[in-house]
């Protein structure tokens, strides 16, 4: 018999990921002074509400809040995937507006523990989607 993750545990983990990601990019931008590019801003537009929505869902014990985690997470993951493809050169387009005159996601200042920020964003969104999905499966059992 395999162990089951409870809906509360999955949602709590999804909220922690969203909160940690939100606080991390605020630290990078506000404390370290590294300006985000346009694609990073779009990803933030999906991540910041996740921290609030999932947190409120936990507070109010709304077992169906995971569906919002899935929806917002998929939107953010799509942008993060595109951004990651641009970063590694799989998408044959320059990163815009990551140029020499604006913020750039391609220099060494945009690495955290040796991992590019677009990849970290993609990982965070995938985790939120997966954990939110787990919470929904558990709540319907």
From TrEMBL:
Subcellular localization: Membrane
Membrane topology qualifier: Multi-pass membrane protein
The entry's keywords: Chaperone, Disulfide bond, Electron transport, Membrane, Oxidoreductase, Redox-active center, Transmembrane, Transmembrane helix, Transport
GO cellular component, one term: membrane
Domain of life assignment: Bacteria
InterPro entries hit by this protein: DiS_bond_form_DsbB/BdbC, Disulphide_bond_form_BdbC, DsbB-like_sf
Transmembrane feature ranges: 43-61, 68-91, 111-136
Molecular-function GO term, any one: protein-disulfide reductase activity
GO terms classed as biological process: protein folding
Listed Pfam families: DsbB
Protein family per UniProt: Belongs to the DsbB family. BdbC subfamily.
Protein name in the entry: Disulfide bond formation-like protein
């Amino acid at each position: 018999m395999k162990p089951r993750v409870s809906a509360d545990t999955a949602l709590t983990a999804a909220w922690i990921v969203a909160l940690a990601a939100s606080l991390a990019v605020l630290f990078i931008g506000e404390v370290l002074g590294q300006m985000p590019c346009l694609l990073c801003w779009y990803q933030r537009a999906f991540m910041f509400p996740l921290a609030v929505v999932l947190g409120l869902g936990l507070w109010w014990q709304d077992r169906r809040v995971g569906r919002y985690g899935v929806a917002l997470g998929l939107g953010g993951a799509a942008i993060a995937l595109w951004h990651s493809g641009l970063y590694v050169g799989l998408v044959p387009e320059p990163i815009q507006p990551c140029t020499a005159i604006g913020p750039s996601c391609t220099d060494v200042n945009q690495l955290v523990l040796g991992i590019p920020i677009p990849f970290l964003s993609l990982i965070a969104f995938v985790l939120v989607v997966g954990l939110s999905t787990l919470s929904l499966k558990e709540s319907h059992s």
